[in-house]
């Protein structure tokens, strides 16, 4: 087999019905740190998508009837494969996405993928008996849906694919995956490995550069796909929702976020600086539930700004394959341009504490901009990059209103030494998860999802698992 970590221009294959499928055309995937071509992904077409859906439909007929034990064992076998190939895939993620191997980078992503796979392997949806009396017995069953379409973004390509695929497969569905054209290679490789342990057709993958063939759009309207699990931006999620209507697809939409963090006056600024840093800048800030607006009480405002800026100045940034880097480049030009424009708008009004201007290529230094407020683009819009606005506040009610004054509602955080006080504030925040003294630390047993324009449905835990099923009640 080709060593895909070293093959600078290797062409990867789609996997349809258990077999590698090439396409007459392919598109290049480049390393954001160097601009080099990492590999080529197949330019799949509507016919490839139809073939993948047909294979998944055929596989569903038998996969949906397998035992719980068999499906749990298959998921654990996938976890073993991921573990055995963790270094190889981490390198591929770093090369196509840019995040460093170290820090909360691609090795961490692979660790998460394995942990989520194992946790989900142990989930199930047992029959619930709602009534068992002389008058009758009522049972609630959860049935798999059929073919699930998974559409993923470029920021955590493998972890998010795993979040979609494993609960689908574990609950008896079959899958067609479509990764982002910016980062398709690691997903193609992961699904190739899955196919070493799964029956043909259970998990398929198609890729395309969507300027030519928008397979995501075709998936959301496809009559033989029963559910779309989508992670990406809110505008694309809205398109998915519109085109899913005709076939009444089930939807889980994990969309954009603009998470607020509220720092209360009782914190120790130096003690929280590291936590604030990783909350905002994990994966160069390209994380849905990263801290994206930081509201700090006047009493500790200067001290928090200073402690955070001190921390930022000591964080090594460089090419992700360099073992010394913990921060890397922005993942692609489109995102770089967006971040740069928002940073410039912030710098024109606020006080730049660190960074501020673009570096070489797609590198952008970690940028803190103080003295901004709601209404400023860097506060109101999702930056999805290494630039954090800091906002001063004095009144608690006003800051809660400011945090909620945004169409998004993914996550939020409160930073305080008084946990009960923080929980009372949490109850007033309009978002799916509130962290206290941390931010963005999702875990496989805690349902995660957005409110407002951040989407609907949840992933993870029992509630996330159930979203891959329809309820069927049997009354006897
Ligand atoms: P995006 O919406 O541009 O793309 C996401 C996926 O949708 C890609 O695979 C893309 O090819 C596909 N796509 C494009 N057009 C489509 C269409 N018409 N129909 C269906 N699919 C289509 O998002 P992105 O830039 O890859 O990711 C960044 C965004 O994702 C950010 O807003 C971020 O907050 C969000 N995100 C959310 C979560 C979450 O869990 N809530 C997690 C990660 C990222």
From TrEMBL:
PROSITE patterns: ALDEHYDE_DEHYDR_CYS (PS00070), ALDEHYDE_DEHYDR_GLU (PS00687)
Keywords for the protein's UniProt record, in alphabetical order: Oxidoreductase, Plasmid
CDD domains: ALDH_AldA-AAD23400 (cd07106)
Residues annotated as the enzyme's active site: 254
Molecular functions (GO terms): oxidoreductase activity, acting on the aldehyde or oxo group of donors, NAD or NADP as acceptor
Annotated signal sequence range: none
Similarity-based family: Belongs to the aldehyde dehydrogenase family.
Protein name per the record: Aldehyde dehydrogenase family protein
The organism of origin for this protein: Alloyangia sp. H15
